[in-house]
Amino acid sequence: MPTLAGIARAAALLVAGLALGGCGFHLEASNTLPRSLASARVEAIDTQSDFCHGLRAALLSNGTRLDAEVAGAATIRILEDSTSERVLSVSGFNIPTAFELSYHVRVAVESQGRELMAPEDHTLTREYSFDQRALLAKEREREVLTQALADDLVALLMRRFAAL
């Protein structure tokens, strides 16, 4: 015989499920790509960048066949893929204490001679503090932030591709 606590727990789960479904919640990797991206080729100047690796992985996880020599395969061109860093603030001893890290990509998509997406620029930035006494840790933090920016750009472009 169900207890009152069990019934309350089941009701709470049901309400939570309905609330999530009703608000338009979708898992991040649930982008449905159009048929024109069922098979694609990724062309990039730097095929070893964080963004290029992330984009290829995201396309594969969404069912796209990559580097297919199939007639009609879309071409995703990464026209620009760069990171930059600038000093935001310095200490009284003229030592940097904060930086701004930027990741910039320019991407275009075409399929069967048709331009599906004109070249688009996307840039994301993050700030981080710097302490010369923790140089190795701060270098690692910069690497992690660069990867996170690349991942965010990939997610942004996957949503953009889904809207094509």
Distinctive features:
164 residues; alpha/beta; five-stranded mixed sheet
Task: Describe the fold and architecture.
It is built from three helices and five strands; from the N terminus they run αβαββββα. It is an alpha/beta fold. It has a single domain, classed as Lipoprotein like domain (Double Stranded RNA Binding Domain). It has a five-stranded mixed β-sheet with strand order 2-1-3-4-5, covered by helices on one side. It is flat and about 65 Å long. It starts with a helix and ends with a helix.
Chain-wise SSE layout:
Layout: H1 4-22, E1 39-44, H2 50-61, E2 65-66, E3 74-90, E4 96-111, E5 114-129, H3 135-162
Parallel strand pairs: 1-2, 1-3
Antiparallel strand pairs: 3-4, 4-5
Helix pairs in contact: 2-3
Quickly describe the structure.
By secondary structure, the chain is an alpha/beta fold. It has one domain (34-162): Double Stranded RNA Binding Domain (2-Layer Sandwich), CATH 3.30.160.150. 36% of the residues lie in helices and 35% in strands.
